[in-house]
Automatic annotation (TrEMBL):
The keyword Secreted applies. It comes from the Eukaryota. Keywords: Disulfide bond, EGF-like domain, Glycoprotein, Glycosidase, Hydrolase, Lysosome, Secreted, Signal. It comes from Danionella cerebrum. It is found in: Lysosome; Secreted. Belongs to the glycosyl hydrolase 56 family. It catalyses: Random hydrolysis of (1->4)-linkages between N-acetyl-beta-D-glucosamine and D-glucuronate residues in hyaluronate. This is Hyaluronidase.
Length: 470
C-alpha cells in the first residue's frame, strides 16, 4: 500500500528548484536552514503504467514490519518512502506484488530434504499445468486489470543456466542426469551430460519465459521480471588481492545466453545486498554495487526494448544481521544506483526486523536518523535534476559511470530537516541559498538525460512525433 494523504495513500515530495551532485564526504556538512523552500506533494495514481517508469526515482519499503506496532507498540515512520507494502507479509497489492515459489503456478523444485515438488527438475514438470494454475494465481493476487506496479517473480531454487547450479543446487544436475540415463542406459557419461544440460536449459527457459509472457498478457501494465536477474557473480572480494568489482567475462558471456529473459522482462531486478565480509570496505562496496548495476544496464541495452526500468533490490542491513549500513554504505549502494540511472530501489527486509521489540526499536532509530534523511536527500535531488536538466521528462544519468559524482543535494545550499507539520514525511529538504544557474551548469557537466518514453532531445524537451499509418 501507499502512504500519504490521498486515496491511494502515496505522497511524493518534490521541489521546483535545481541542485548539484555531491560526493558522500560532503553530506555530513549539511547545516541548519536559513530560509525555507516550499515543497509540493503529488499522488501516484494507478491509471497508467507510465506513472512509475516516468518518475526520476522512487523508493519501495518491502519488509514485514507491521508486527512492530501490533505486537510491540513500536511505530515505524515509513513516510519517506514512495511505496510501502507489507500487508500480511504477503507483499501483494496495487503497487507491488511478489510471487514466491509456492505462490505462482506449479514451479518444479526440490525441497530442503531433496524431495521433488512438481517433478523436481523443470524438464520433469508440466509447463501447461503450471500456466493453468499461474493464470488463476495472478487473477487472484492481482485482481485489478489495470495493475501497473512492480510484479516480481522470486524463483531461487534453481538457475536457468546449467553451469550455475553449483553447490547445493547440484541436485538439479543429478536429477537431470538421472532422467537421461533412465531413457538412455547405455550412453556414456559425456553423452548424458550434454543431453542433461540441453534438456534442463530448454525446460527452465520454458517455465520462466512462458510465466513472464503469461503475466504480461494478464496484467500488461505490470513491470514483470525475476528477482536477482541479472547477476554478474562479482564476489571476488572474498579472495585476497585488489578487488575491481568488475563482472567476470565468463559470467557476462553467460548472461548473454539469457537474452530471451531480458527481452521478455518489462523490468530488471538485480540485487546489491552486502554480506558482512564487505563491512567497512567502502571502496569495495562501491565497486561491487556499481558493476552489478552496470551489468543490468548492459544486458538491457542488448534487448529489443532498451527502456526497461531497473529496480535494484537493496537491504538496510548487512545480510543475516541487524548491522545497519552506514551513510557511506548507503551512498555506495542506493546512491550509486540512482546516479547510474536506476528507476528506483526496493529495500527488502526479512522477519528479523520485527522479531523482537529491541529489533523494532533498532530499525526505528535507523529510519528516524540515517536512512530517512538519505532517502529524502536523493529523492529530492533526482527530481530537482530532472526538472532543471531534463525538462521534467527524463532522469539524470552519470556521464562517466566510473566517476564518483552523485545525485545529492548541495550541502552548502540545502538542509534536510525535521518536518514541522504533522502530516507527510518526517523530513523535508530546505533551500537556504539560490544559485540555480551554477547548479544547473555543474549538473549538465556530470549528468546526461535519459528521456522518458515519448520524449527526446538533449534535454528531453521534444515530444516524439506520432507515427502516422495513413
Amino acid at each position: 500500500m501507499f502512504v500519504g494523504q490521498c486515496a491511494l495513500d502515496v505522497v511524493v515530495r518534490r521541489s521546483h528548484a535545481s541542485m548539484k551532485s555531491w560526493s558522500s564526504g560532503d553530506l555530513s556538512r549539511m547545516p541548519r536552514p536559513g530560509c525555507v523552500l516550499v515543497v509540493f506533494s503529488m499522488c501516484l495514481a494507478s491509471s497508467s503504467s507510465s506513472h512509475l517508469t516516468n518518475l526520476p526515482f522512487f523508493s519501495v519499503w518491502n519488509a514485514p514490519t507491521q508486527r512492530c506496532k501490533s505486537q510491540f507498540g513500536v511505530t515505524l515512520d515509513l513516510s519517506v518512502f514512495d511505496i510501502v507494502h507489507n500487508r500480511d507479509d504477503a507483499f501483494m497489492g496495487n503497487n507491488i506484488t511478489i510471487f514466491y515459489a509456492d505462490k505462482l503456478g506449479e514451479y518444479p523444485y526440490y525441497n530442503s530434504v531433496n524431495e521433488p515438488v512438481y517433478g523436481g527438475v523443470p524438464q520433469n514438470g508440466s509447463v501447461s499445468q503450471h500456466l493453468w494454475k499461474a493464470q488463476r494465481d495472478i487473477q487472484a493476487d492481482i485482481p485489478d486489470l489495470g495493475f501497473n506496479g512492480l510484479a516480481v517473480v522470486d524463483w531461487e531454487m534453481w538457475r536457468p543456466l546449467w553451469e550455475r547450479n553449483w553447490d547445493t543446487k547440484d541436485v538439479y544436475w543429478k536429477g537431470s542426469r538421472a532422467l537421461v540415463k533412465a531413457k538412455h542406459p547405455f550412453w556414456s557419461p559425456d553423452q548424458i551430460e550434454v543431453e542433461a544440460a540441453k534438456e534442463f536449459e530448454e525446460a527452465s527457459r520454458g517455465f520462466m519465459e512462458e510465466t513472464l509472457k503469461l503475466g504480461r498478457r494478464e496484467r500488461p501494465g505490470g513491470l514483470w521480471g525475476f528477482y536477482g536477474f541479472p547477476c554478474c557473480y562479482n564476489y571476488q572480494y572474498k579472495k585476497n588481492g585488489t578487488y575491481t568489482g568488475k563482472c567476470p567475462a565468463l559470467e557476462m558471456k553467460r548472461n548473454d545466453k539469457l537474452t530471451w529473459m531480458w527481452n521478455i522482462s518489462s523490468a530488471l531486478y538485480p540485487d546489491i545486498y552486502l554480506d558482512l565480509g564487505l563491512h567497512g570496505r567502502g571502496r569495495d562496496i562501491l565497486f561491487y554495487s556499481r558493476y552489478r548495476i552496470l551489468e543490468a544496464l548492459r544486458v538491457r541495452d542488448k534487448t529489443t526494448h532498451r527502456s526497461s526500468p531497473i529496480f535494484p533490490y537493496a537491504r538496510i542491513a548487512y545480510t543475516y544481521s541487524l548491522e545497519f549500513l552506514s551513510q557511506e554504505d548507503l551512498v555506495h549502494t542506493i546512491g550509486e544506483s540512482v546516479a547510474l540511472g536506476a528507476s528506483g530501489v526496493v529495500l527488502w527486509g526479512d522477519g528479523s526486523y520485527s522479531q523482537t521489540k529491541g529489533a523494532c526499536e533498532a530499525v526505528q532509530g535507523y529510519l528516524d536518523d540515517i536512512l530517512g534523511r538519505y532517502i529524502v536527500n536523493i529523492t529530492e535531488a533526482a527530481f530537482l535534476c530532472s526538472r532543471s536538466v531534463c525538462s521534467a521528462q527524463g532522469r539524470c544519468v552519470r556521464r562517466d559511470p566510473t566517476r564518483t559524482t552523485f545525485l545529492h543535494l548541495n550541502p552548502d545550499l540545502w538542509s534536510i530537516v525535521p518536518r514541522k507539520k504533522q502530516s507527510g514525511p518526517a523530513y523535508e529538504a530546505h533551500r537556504r541559498k539560490w544559485k540555480v544557474e551554477e547548479e544547473t551548469r555543474r549538473l549538465k557537466e556530470d549528468f546526461w538525460c535519459q528521456c522518458f518514453p515519448g520524449w527526446e532531445g538533449e534535454q528531453c524537451q521534444k515530444p516524439v512525433p506520432a507515427v502516422s499509418f495513413t
